[in-house]
Amino acid sequence: MAIQRKAILQSALSFLVGFAILFWVFRSNGATIQETVEDFRSVPVIWLILCCLAFMLSNLSRAIRWNMLLQPLGYQPRLINSFLAVMIGYLANMGIPRSGELLRPASLSRYEKIPIERTVGTTVTDRLLDFLSLFIIMALGFLLKGRLLIDKLVELTSLDHLSNQFIPLAIVGIVGIIIAWIAIRWMLNSSHHLAIRMKGMYLGLRDGLVSILKIKRPGWLIIHSLLIWFLYISMTYFCFKGFQPTAHITWDQTIVVFVFGALGMVIPTPGGMGSYQFFIQTGLLLFGISDTDGLAIANIIWFTISIICNLGFGLIALLLLPMINRAPIGAQQTEHKPT
Description:
Blueprint: H1 2-29, H2 33-41, H3 45-70, H4 79-95, H5 100-112, H6 116-156, H7 159-189, H8 193-210, H9 218-242, H10 251-266, H11 275-285, H12 291-324
């Protein structure tokens, strides 16, 4: 009950933060809901379909990459289960930000009978690959429009404030590392039943994290890692092309604006609500797009991806996963064993 209450409070808080940011963005630009609806209706359906198609393909590619990380550990999950688990993870993030990183591996573990620590470990590896890919994209953005990006980021962030926060954050980080090291040492050397249980979870997580070192076809891992983010950028590009004021935005300019949008997604609100719109709007200012049109296209992208794709397709995945895995009469599900 206490866990449920905490989850509800976290979800409510994230929605309030996101709504507050979104309200401020709308208020500062004098935008209305009616204008937003009209802007969305002005986009030809074909561009929205292409955006949704890129979304689905990116999730399929992510599911394939996830299976590649699980295979060195001896597990061969069905691709459809991995794909639907990925979709459910994005759905969960719409309620409680980052909760999908736990619900996604939990869903796959339940239906594929894979130990949860293995699916969690490979999910962490999956996210580390995402951070590396995003870093490469950001570096590419700086190469393309470095001066513009630096000037705008300096304007958006107070460097003095960041420097004042660095020392306490560094202290907290060092203390956390020391505590983690002591806990791991105790866990590995103690015969206490709790330590033994934690050791099993730790070893499973470790195996999941290092599974990337045992990939049989690392070239395909790289291809899928690049493809996922190419499709992410394509989703933004398709929406730009469908909205008349941004139809002239080029591919390299899209990459720069995408970097800004990625920064907005860091803020823990449902689907980046509010913060995503603000950062996309800010990025588009670099290329002469007005505040009003920037907010309009940001809402179009956010609604298409977060509501239609994450929420709509996520709910469908939530219904399909148990239906697909409904065992025939007399059949018994068996646990996957490492080979």
